Amino acid sequence: MLRKQITDNYSVSDQISLANVETLSQLGITLIICNRPDNEEEGQLTFAEVKALAKEKNINAVHIPFSGGQMQPSDVEAFKAVIKDGDNIHAYCRTGNRSSVIWQAATETSSKAPSDDMTFDVVIVGAGTAGISTAASLLKRKPDLSICLIDPAANHFYQPGWTLVGGGVFKAESTRRNMSDVIPKGTKWLKESVKTFHPNDNKVTLENGHHIGYQYLVVAAGIKLNWDAIEGLSETLGRNGVTSNYRYDLAPYTWELSQNLKSGKAIFTQPPMPIKCAGAPQKAMYLSCDHWFKQDMLNNIDVSFYNAGGVLFGVSEYVPALQSYIEKYQITTNFNHNLVKVDGPNKRAYFAAKDENGQPTVVEAEFDMLHVCPPQSAPDFIRNSPLVDDAGWVNVDKETLQHTTFNNIWSLGDVANTPNAKTMAAVRKQAPVVAQNIADTIQGRKVRAIYDGYGSCPLTVERGKIVLAEFGYGGTLMPTFPNWLNNGTKATRLAWILKEDLLPPFYWHGMLKGYEWFVSPKMRK
């Protein structure tokens, strides 16, 4: 049981056991609420079993079940009816998320309903690639829409460029613009943070207490990089040889380390999925190795790749090309090894793994250079909202990108629970789908535009060559170019030219301006 204290008298957790009921009794819990339907998964303890033991311990137990992302107003009312002042309450579901969401909904709806400070046709939460592209695409279709973008960031970044910053190809400054310069003309930008959502009232609440009303909502809040989830990492980032291309300020340090390392041990890590741009940890490794190879230093450097997953790449067709570079650069691969601790001053990394008997163990490794990819999740204000599934991602139809419960809400980009690669290329395909479906809904037409799961991962295996992985749902290969022009399963010069020379201006002057070159949405018949 992973117990999280929400208030002084309310806690939540994942699925509890009978032994946990005894523990909750010792903690003074007076009411247990189960927000999980029985038989949700095989072997799940039934509510009746929990209730029987709770009764023996003089604990009340109430069942208010609902599936992830399917909470109804009646569930909230039932929850409000059973919580009383003086109770010490513990609620549980599969992960604890549903129990957090219903508490938030019950305590907020019990207060005075929020009033609007402003109301817009469309409110977009997040002014990253997904949010701005969607706003621009909407305005191409309906220039008269009132659109509000909400994001506290002062800068907008072309994050795919950070791989090339870490490889000494780009300067970091070329990947940054002032946010005010990329917000589409005709939209309102609120430089604020969203606190919570009121989907039944068509409102969002900002951290400053103001309330923003909408007819249609787009959630494009991105992803949280959880640096603090790895013990000791935050304290040593940017020094002691510890770096990451996942941060604007650290990507130049990656290149500095690669240039200065003449001998020793270099480690590159990848956490459990999902993460944004799943190929980025390998890209950093290949570009560093290419530099060492060309400087005739690779024989003096021991390179290791520690991957929490079990394979080199999730789409098997691209593995042979990548494996050939693993062999060329003499990289030692360690699968099912998850970075859990970094001791920067002593240059030690620690990985959770299993021994030959399948028992949990911790593997210690020395390093002179450590490139880290942090674990990732939806932002906290999203995970604690009524919009998400059990894993904390916004719950949408994977084709239409429309919310599964609230028909006037859409989500795209890293924060959505669509089972595709979280890449800029995916957003490039998703934004027109969301824009078209909202435009159709406004005009009373059926939602018709569909997203096919397309994502692209340009794997920079050496300076001047890229394996251009392009695939959709289920790992289906979806190459943009014919095989005679660019064989995506091989490293090619053309793919490098695409990434280095063509994609950055395409991004700043095309995608963020609402130009949908090569990505017109497919339509259901």
TrEMBL record:
Q: One Pfam family, please name it.
A: Pyr_redox_2
Record-annotated Rhodanese domain positions: 60-141
Sorted alphabetically, which SUPFAM superfamilies does this protein's record hold?
FAD/NAD(P)-binding domain
The source's superkingdom equals: Bacteria
Keyword tags: Transferase
Q: Which GO terms describe its molecular function?
A: transferase activity
- Give the matching Gene3D superfamilies: FAD/NAD(P)-binding domain, Protein tyrosine phosphatase superfamily
State the name under which the record lists this protein.
Answer: TIGR01244 family sulfur transferase
